[in-house]
Write a structure and sequence with these properties.
The complex is a heterodimer.
Chain A lengths: L1 H23 L2 E7 L5 E10 L5 E8 L6 E6 L9 E7 L8 E3 L4 E2 L5 E7 L9 E6 L9 E7 L7 E3 L5 E2 L5 E7 L7 E7 L5 E8 L6 E4 L4 E2 L5 E8 L6 E6 L8 E7 L8 E9 L5 E7 L8 E6 L6 E7 L13 E3 L4 E6 L11 E6 L9 E7 L2 H4 L8 E2 L6 E5 L13 E6 L2
Antiparallel strand pairs in A: 1-31, 2-3, 3-4, 4-5, 6-8, 7-8, 8-9, 9-10, 11-13, 12-13, 13-14, 14-15, 16-18, 17-18, 18-19, 19-20, 21-22, 22-23, 23-24, 25-26, 26-27, 27-28, 29-30, 30-31
Chain B lengths: L1 H10 L33 E2 L15 E8 L9 E7 L5 E8 L4 E6 L11 E4 L6 E2 L1 E2 L12 E2 L6 E3 L4 E12 L2 E12 L11 E7 L4 E2 L6 E2 L11 E3 L8 E6 L5 E5 L6 E6 L28 E3 L5 E4 L14 E10 L4 E11 L3 H7 L9 E2 L10 E4 L12 E6 L5 E2 L4 E4 L10 E4 L4 E6 L3 E9 L2 E2 L5 E7 L6 E5 L2 E9 L14 E6 L5 E4 L20 E3 L2 E5 L3 E7 L6
Parallel strand pairs in B: 1-34, 23-27
Antiparallel strand pairs in B: 2-40, 3-4, 4-5, 5-6, 7-11, 8-9, 10-11, 11-12, 12-13, 14-15, 16-17, 17-18, 18-19, 20-21, 21-22, 22-23, 24-25, 25-26, 26-28, 29-30, 30-31, 31-32, 31-33, 34-35, 35-36, 36-37, 38-39, 39-40
The chains are: A mainly beta, B mainly beta.
Chain lengths: 424, 565
Amino acid sequence: MRFRTLNLRNALLIMTLALSTLANAATESTLFTFSEQTSFWPQGALIEDGTGNLFGTTRAGGTYGVGTVFELSPPAVSGGAWTITYLYNFVPYGSGGFVPVSELVRDQAGAFYGTVYSGGDPICNCGGVYKLVPPAVSGGAWTESMFYAFKGSADGRLPAAAALALTAKGTLYGVTVRGGTWDSGVLYQLTTTNGTSYTESVLYSFGDLADASTPNGPVTVDSSGSLYGVASLGGAFAQGAVYKYVPASKGHLATESLLFSFGGSSTTGAGPSGNLIFDVGGNIYGVTNAGGSANDYGVVYSLAPAKPTWTQTILYTFSKSSGVNPVGGLTWNHTNNNLYGTTSSLNGLTSGDGSVFKLVPPAVKGGAWTESTLFEFTYAVSGGYPTGAVTRDTKTGTLYGTAINGGVTGCDLFCGTVWQIANP
Amino acid sequence: MYRSLTLAIILLSTFAFSQKTPQGLAPTGTVNVLTRQNDNQHTAQNLQETILTPTNVNSGSFGKVFSYPVDGQVYAEPLYVQNLTMAQGGVHNVVFVATEYDSIYAFDADSAASNPNPLWHVNFLNPPTVAPVPCSQGSGICQLFPVVGITSTPVINLATNTIYAVVRTQETSGTTVNWVVRLHALDITSGAEKTGSPATICSATGNAGCVLGGTGAQFGPHHQQSRPGLLLVPEAGFPQGVLVIGFSGDSGWVLAFDPTSLKLLASFYTDDEKAHSTKTPGIPGEGHSGIWAAGGAVVADTTGNIYAITGDGFWDGTVNWGDSLVKLVLTFNSTTGTYSLVPADYFTTSDQACRYAHGLDYGSAGPLILPPQGGSTPNLIFTTGKQVGTCETTFAGYVINRDNMGHTGGQVSTMSLPNGGAEQSPAYWSTGTTQYIYNGGDADALRAFTVSSAGVSTSPVLASTHLFDSGTSPAVSANGTTNGIVWALERLDDPDHQPGFQPAVLHAFNATNLSELYNSSQAASGRDTAGPSVKFQVPMVANGKVYVGTQTELDVYGLCPCAQK
């Protein structure tokens, strides 16, 4: 009898633990599935406002087929359906540009900024930078304007599929993948005094000799005004680099330097991609889309300040068991320093086409980071090819993101989803 | 007859098969590229290239020399006319570029620095009422992105200085949206419309269509895409020659036009739905038996027979032609005074039913008509299609006898392709002693087969070390039987996640051993980087330069000094 009681107690304990674990298990939900008949190809990271609305762009579809800006609103009642509202449908003619490629950034007044790949200058058709201003009266139409159209020469062309950096003064920083002195991309800024007209300045042209080439990630601005980002090509080993740009200051010319060049060995990773994040110690964290091993599956790395180049540490090398080839960058959970990200594709798992992963820092400095796969996408059900960074709700910890395609059986190439993962 | 033959010689000035031997032409020092893959047989060979050689094509002496921005994606192969006297004055070598934004450009082919602006540029849009077709319309699958305008490679008639192009638009009047497909004929010296141009092939709303050629089937402009390059077939039995246009959509279509009046002479469609469903023929179908083949689905031999290869679809060998290669003959009915395109012969893969069931097109790759060979079956066509491991144990290409196509499973031979299906088009070249077919299947190397009176080798004899994830449609430049170079474009973006923005990569291989001579990724700091790649593009080589269409620009490669550094 005692034995039985103990067994019952143990059983209850196990059940409690199991339920507790279940309650805390990462749970994925598809919030919205796009379609070829409405809008499709959601991309990159989402923006979340204070009331839980998510904002993003689709590269295609909408009224004119060439992209949208959308708002996805949570249901009034838990368990209900999320509601999509199209704030703007891009138009494949006129001056507004089309095919939005970047994630959004938002200013204090609620306006969104982003980049388009097509339209703009009628000869160059090199894309540009747009602003989407909310209506003065609720329910009115949002107003889009392309306030800078690339000309395709020294000023750059074809903006990267990366979010702009927006400062408190309203200055925007971004990169193009082509154009500039070497036609290998530029780092540009757009300044304004009135929020309406902007002046573009090329801060730096990439691509000379062993310089970085084809910048492709968002620009990060530090407290001193220095700019950081990644370039997918170039560098000392022609496999991409992390760059830093220090603006001119009194007595000093502006400088660009490569903090790290990928490809010096097979383990360093190749083709850096996505955003860079910093810890309080000034270390940089990011991902590469390839390299890391003979399989070319990519890595998560950190860079520690050192001279002449920063010191790289590989935090994780992707393998088929975890998903492969990340495109989006990383997201912090600042309370425990966990990192979150996505892998894009081809993870070798029977169910998946990309994944969401978590990296937990080592308990002891110098130890190994621990990777866990939070979710494996099933192409025809939950979407595939997530290429954006994860958006983390700092209150609930819930993760949000996009998958470029899939989500519907028979939607061969496109559609796509917005997803969430609770309790990551 | 004499007139037709003369026209043929003019039109086919770069064609290999106007010669009697398969070993290639003697160089004559001049070249024009007037149709996709250089000739109606789609050999994709320019045998009059005296500047580019395996010796000087390397990253030290060869690279990107200039580029021209364009307003949309370039799926059509650029075309080339040398020493053209322009209406505005001046004589230029001219490269013609068509875009999905419904533009045609004429650029100076030799120098963007001296001629930064187009020699002429026409655009067929008038927004907002006349706009390009969003890719999500019609088929609902954005195989082409983001808008669809001019997809098929135009064709040029030098005898009349005319370039022909098929243009798709979305036209709005009030609340009515019309989907329109037009045939334009433009003066190549000015871009001006020729008399009678444009001709509307079909304009209709929603899923409505137009009955073409008295067939009873409807051609639906909302769905039909003109993807195969246009052909001018002077030998087809019409005094002015015949302009041939292929389409894919609800059904495959081949339309034959009088190139002078732009009037439709005859039509042929590949999917008669009333024979296997209750639907109205052609509208709205399910994309059956489309004629596309990566832009190279329609070819013609030198006696005027037209061959169209089809994608998967219903097949009955009479009015439904899924997964088949159909030989069409333009036939005049003296009683009615009308023409028709008669399916005179065909080949169908023996696994057709399996292909149809699994959506695995036979006609995903362009056919190649080989030059006459000796032996008992001198007239051959080389074809490949999508990989069909579900239906076959190994992937194969098919060699068909043009004189007796064998019907179902009646190929002359098959050859083993070690990897990958094909969604591209092959090329042909002869050293004078060895004839090669160059084929670039998905996720495979560029491979060469030999051709002789014994047929096509059953296995490849050469292979590049470089793999092309998305396959490639090669082109050959040579000075007759020497200095052969195989040019191939690589698309780096994942074929399942298209279209991306990675640059096209131009490769050059020694045609006799497929060792790589050059690629546009080799030069430091992106010196030779091309614009973002598109599918199905074929590099066009003329007079020492290689022309590459991309999503955003025409890139031109040649002997350095190169554009950067």
